[in-house]
Design a protein that fits this description.
Radius of gyration: 15 Å
Strand content: 35-45%
Number of strands: 4
Order of helices and strands: EHEEHEH
Structural class: alpha+beta
Strand order of the largest sheet: 2-3-1-4
Distance between the termini: 47 Å
Largest sheet: 4 strands, antiparallel
CATH architecture: 2-Layer Sandwich
Helix content: 25-40%
Length: 116
C-alpha cells in the first residue's frame, strides 16, 4: 500500500451540508476501492492566490490516504466530473505527518491578532 495526501478545493458559495456531502462521497469512493483514510482535515475557507473559475476563495478539504494506484485513479476520475470542485491535488508521500495541524489556529496566534 502507498501513502497519499489528497487536497480538494470546493467553490466558496456551497453550504456546510454540501461540503459534508462531498466529504462523504469521496470517503465512500476511497473505501470502495480498497483505500483507507488515515486522517481527514477541514482547512476551511481560504483566499486563493488567483481567480479560479471566477472564485476568490475556496473551501479546502485534505485527506491522508493509504491505498493503491487504482484508488487514486478512481477518485480523480470522479472529481473531474464534479462541478462543485475547483481543483484537486494528489501527492504520493513516504510517511504521514500526523502531529502537525498546519491550518489550526493556536492560542498564541489569537492573542497576537487581538493585540494588533
Amino acid at each position: 500500500m502507498n501513502y497519499y495526501e489528497h487536497t480538494l478545493i470546493t467553490r466558496q458559495d456551497i453550504s456546510p451540508s454540501q461540503i459534508k456531502q462531498i466529504e462523504d462521497k469521496y470517503v465512500k469512493i476511497i473505501e470502495k476501492n480498497d483505500g483507507n483514510i488515515i486522517k481527514l482535515e477541514k482547512w476551511g475557507l481560504m483566499h486563493l492566490s488567483y481567480l479560479i473559475k471566477k472564485n476568490k476563495k475556496g473551501n479546502y478539504i485534505h485527506f491522508k490516504i493509504e491505498g493503491k494506484g487504482k484508488t487514486i485513479k478512481e477518485l480523480e476520475k470522479n472529481e473531474k466530473l464534479d462541478k462543485n470542485l475547483l481543483r484537486y491535488l494528489t501527492v504520493k508521500v513516504r510517511k504521514f505527518d500526523l502531529e502537525t495541524d498546519y491550518f489550526k489556529k493556536n492560542d498564541e496566534d489569537k492573542k497576537k491578532a487581538e493585540t494588533i
